[in-house]
Amino acid sequence: MKAPPLLRGLARDWIGLPDVPGVRRWAWVAVIDAIGTGMRIPVTVIYLTTVVDLPAASVGIGLGVAALAGTVCAPLTGALIDRFGPRTMVIACFLTAAAGYFGYLAIWDLASFLVVAIVAEIAEHSGRPAKQALVAAMVTAEQRVPLMAFQRSVRNIGFGLGGLTSAALLTLDAQGGYHAVLAGDAISFLVAAGLVTGIRVTHRRVTSPQATEQTVPPATRGGFREVLADRRYVALAVLNTMVMTHVTALNVGVPLWIDQHTSAPPGLVGVLFAMNTALVVILQVRLTKGVSTAGQTPPVYLRAAAAFALAAVVYWAASVAGDALALVVALLVVAVLAHTVAELYGAVGEWTVSVNLAPEHLRGRYLSLFSISFSAHQAIGPVLVILLITQAPELAWFVLAAVLGAGCLASAWLARGAREPAEPKEMSTTP
């Protein structure tokens, strides 16, 4: 798929998208993948409870078990990425995900649900480090963070389109709409896998015997022992679990806060989320300017902490503003604006340290380790946020700001002066 010259110029000059053929194809992959995911996420639980007729508690337990399986498989994925290459693993993950979500159409009981959910979650969890490793292989070190930011922007567009498509299908045919949504998601993975086969991946070469030993050691040397011995990287991965507080605070905390502790109407949640999505699309790439190395991330982490602290204060203020509806709405808008800035800067810090501090010969293993922080936060974050907002609302946002702030400050300290592994020189590309 080739974009018109005007759009390519806009992407390159205003957004900062690297002018690399594989990048344009990857943008389409990101959009198509996100459209399918955006279609599926809002309806999966409803489909399982109303169409398949599984108990809601069983669905929750099943999804938790599947997510745990995906987390446990992450280290194996890292080894496979290093062994077979990121492009091969991205294609394999897309094909596995397609099989998993086609399988959702054939669920008839709890056991069959567990099987297909585990397959789908393993593919989803494995796909994250594989995609990051593929991005790292497609472009230079200086181009990686802008490309990841661009990917996140277009994925937000895709999520929006997917949600609208899902709503339209369910409106036209409630029963058949669920099947169409799940089939559409599975097909999106197949299309994405087909597109990835045409992406060129840079091969590296060494230029001296010393480089052979020091720069590009065999993938088998050290393995996960070498990854775990990198204490700075392991610590940054652990701290990322705290930095990601902004994710659960937005997705879980904000709707609950508005409903239980402010006088704002429930419909405002949708407006605020739409505003957040639009800001991510518009600003994510722009906020990566000047950040291409791990050593440049300390100010980014500090900005994320400061923005979230401001958001926390304003969220709290909205709860004590009483019935002054205009003031409450204005405060919530300001809070989500600051929250979004924290989200944008937090993402930039995460991408930069996770990819740039991973040596090429073990990049799959490094990124699979870092991806565990996302799974850990998905398990811990919602529980923390819900308990704070329901049991200690007067302290909730300040505790969340302290958690995120501590994670950001410690990450900034660790990233200061971090030395990135040397990049081997390019030799050739393969289609």
TrEMBL record:
Primary residence:
membrane
Which InterPro entries does this UniProt record tie to the protein? MFS (IPR011701), MFS_trans_sf (IPR036259), MFS_Transporters (IPR050171)
How does the protein's chain sit in the membrane according to the entry?
Answer: Multi-pass membrane protein
**SUPFAM superfamilies attached here?**
MFS general substrate transporter
Top-level lineage group? Bacteria
Stretches that traverse the bilayer: 26-48, 60-81, 101-123, 154-172, 178-199, 233-258, 264-288, 300-318, 324-345, 366-389, 395-415
Concerning Pfam families, the annotation shows:
MFS_1 (PF07690)
**Entry's localization field:** Cell membrane
Q: Name one GO cellular component term.
A: plasma membrane
Q: Zinc-finger: is it a keyword of this entry?
A: no
One GO MF annotation is: transmembrane transporter activity
Please give the name of this protein.
MFS transporter
Q: Which species is the source of this protein?
A: Nonomuraea cavernae
Q: The organism's lineage?
A: Bacteria, Bacillati, Actinomycetota, Actinomycetes, Streptosporangiales
